[in-house]
Amino acid sequence: MSKKQKKNLIRILIAAALLILLHFLPVEGLPRFALYLVPYLIVGYDVLKKAVEGIWHKQPFDEYLLMAIATVGAILLGVLKTGDYVEAIAVMLFYQIGEWFQSYAVGKSRQNIAQLMDIRPDYANIETDDGQLEQVDPDDVAIGTIIVIKPGEKVPIDGVVVEGISTLNTAALTGESLPRDVNVNDEIISGCINLTGVLKVRTTKDFGESTVAKILELIEDASSQKSKSEKFISKFAKVYTPIVTLSALALATFPALFLLAIGRDPQWTEWLYRALIFLVISCPCALVVSVPLSFFAGIGGASRAGILIKGANYLEILANIHTVVFDKTGTLTQGNFEVTAIHPEKLDKKELLHLAAHVERYSKHPIALSLREAYGAEADGCEVDDVKEIPGRGIRAFVNGKIVCVGNSQMMDDIGAKWHSCHRTGTCIHVAIDGEYAGHIVIADVIKINSKQAISELRKSGIDQLVMLTGDAPKVAESVSEELGLDHFYAGLLPAGKVQKLEELLNAKKSPRETLAFVGDGINDAPVLSRADIGIAMGALGSDAAIEAADIVLMDDDPLKIVTAIRTAKKCMRIVKENITFSLAIKIACLLLGALGFANMWMAIFADVGVMVLAVLNAARNLWVSSVNSSVQNPHPCRSDV
């Protein structure tokens, strides 16, 4: 709770205590008026001040003016006729209670976002010539500088580890509590917290282009992007407030003048009382407060789950998603090659992988890296000599005195080895020993562990169509599409082709209300992300261009976060509609009752403050985002048959 919230709560409690105390004091006349004025001013001085400021700045028609007129009028009624000031103070007291609840809910949402804002690093450590560490502004650190990150410090700038082993807390960026281990040559991003060892990192970006700076920029811009509902409520309040003010004035005068004209008692006090009740009831606090708060809480709750939404308007669009279009590599698949199958002819699987990994020991090709990572025990005493790379074919080497060839089918044809193809989708690496075929190894870009579950959950969330656009070969795209259960796929597409296909999907929408989302991560996805109704970027591995073009950024690249984002948006819009419907229904009913004389000031208090409190509490539900948990137990299911 902030200092301001504590101060306001103390004011409310003091005013409430004084109101109860005065109820038991037998005081009448002017002393009674003076005593009741004390709690009124304690709890309402800021409302009166804002009402005067609004008049001074020629913008009088807001809830502060309505509260001021209603409560001051009720006090005047007490002075002139009833001698009762409780209703006037109660109106102001309950109004402040509603405002306090609103402030508390907004504070909780800001706290969620502040946790992300707290990732901003204060300094970067640079080692001086005498071995001492100097703290410098991250903005002053050039690309390629070696910085030192001690345990407990934030990673100030994106870079590559050149020395040290440690564990990073990435919760502020990804929403995940599981720490991440890093070693030499691993890339790390700014905003994480170093937990254990000392790291030396070579920076790869300027601070202004680093991950933390981009995230903070997204957060700062998010509040300026208003939804259609927010814009409607703002316009509605500007028109609604002067109308109800003039209506209250008419209610206070016209019926009394009519009664006077026909020779009957005008009952000025009665009609003035009804007008004051009308004003209290008509205050649009519930709508003006709860609708923006619903979106603000939704953005705050999503940010805590590692989903950055650039504005409230995107929540509204996301809630109407009917089609989700995916990029393949890096979005549905991991974006890096792994050994997915080993099929030996005479050797066992381990020995075949062992030979292939040793032959590829000195190659920098991604396939070679995948083979070595899958074997993982290079230092086993094998003698590898006379390594020769044959362009367009593969690599030949002597391993423990035997000629081992590792390459494609053309290499097998060249040496006369009788090879055969594999039923598995991927790149097939053939192995021959002394000219005799020994088997093959399949390497492929494997599907992310949560992709299949994400597709299933999206269908449960009401998504009608799931499509994949990829530049990969049709056979690979078909395999991924079938395994995940997508509706359609389009393969062999260049960036321009992706945009063209997306245009066709947009034109095929059944209704203008239906929206289409595109999910991608690469530079080539930026045009499609911009063209879609809403673009979702994978933020951890995604390119800067994709993150810049997207409307929503998933900080840990987990496809399940797409489901969480859509469900959060649907929940947010449902709560907005509930608050609008509930608030208007109660107000219209109470306004009619007030105008007809069937409502007293206590009903007016409920219609205004009670409805506002209920709407604020309902809006605050958006602070809690329910993430979809992974059902996958084995983190590397693709290796089950390796």
Describe the protein in words.
The chain has four domains: 3-114 and 224-297 and 571-623, no CATH class; 124-153 and 158-204, Calcium-transporting ATPase, cytoplasmic transduction domain A, CATH 2.70.150; 312-332 and 448-550, Rossmann fold, CATH 3.40.50.1000; 334-447, 3-Layer(aba) Sandwich (Calcium-transporting ATPase, cytoplasmic domain N), CATH 3.40.1110. It has 20 helices and 22 strands. Strands 10-22-21-20-11-18-19 form a seven-stranded mixed beta sheet, sandwiched between helices. The two termini are 55 Å apart. 45% of the residues are buried.
Topology diagram in text:
Blueprint: H1 3-23, H2 29-56, H3 63-82, H4 86-117, E1 124-127, E2 133-136, E3 146-149, E4 159-163, E5 166-169, H5 171-174, E6 180-182, E7 187-188, E8 193-194, E9 199-203, H6 211-222, H7 228-261, H8 268-282, H9 285-304, E10 307-309, H10 312-318, E11 321-327, E12 333-344, H11 349-359, H12 366-375, E13 384-390, E14 394-399, E15 402-407, H13 409-415, E16 427-433, E17 436-447, H14 451-460, E18 465-469, H15 474-484, E19 488-490, H16 495-507, E20 515-520, H17 526-531, E21 534-538, H18 544-549, E22 552-554, H19 560-595, H20 601-619
Parallel strand pairs: 11-18, 11-20, 18-19, 20-21, 21-22
Antiparallel strand pairs: 1-2, 1-3, 3-9, 4-7, 4-9, 5-6, 5-8, 10-22, 12-17, 13-14, 14-15, 15-16, 16-17
**SS class:** alpha+beta
Gyration radius over CA: 34 Å
Number of strands: 22
Give the fraction of residues assigned to helices: 40-55%
Tally of discrete structural domains: 4
Q: Spans with pLDDT under 50 lasting ≥5 residues?
A: 222-227, 634-641
Broad shape: elongated
Q: Mind summarizing the main beta sheet?
A: 7 strands, mixed
Widest sheet: strand order? Answer: 10-22-21-20-11-18-19
Cα distance, first to last residue?
A: 55 Å
Count of individual helical segments: 20
* Strand residue percentage: 15-25%
The whole-number mean of residue pLDDT values reads: 79
